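New here. Invent one.

***
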Amino acid sequence: MLSLSTKYREVIILYYFQDEKIEDIAEILHLNLNTVKTRLSRARSILRGKITSFPGDDLLEKRS
């Protein structure tokens, strides 16, 4: 998660670790509601990509 840029990391922290609602995050960060939704979606996508691309994953696929 530390590899995320600040703009993505802050929405992840506020949403998942501080249990803030999207509307509240928009207010806290002085952002448009849709901007917060987009950043949250992109942050999830980036993290999903990092989780599924661990080194050595290709070895597991070759054994199957």
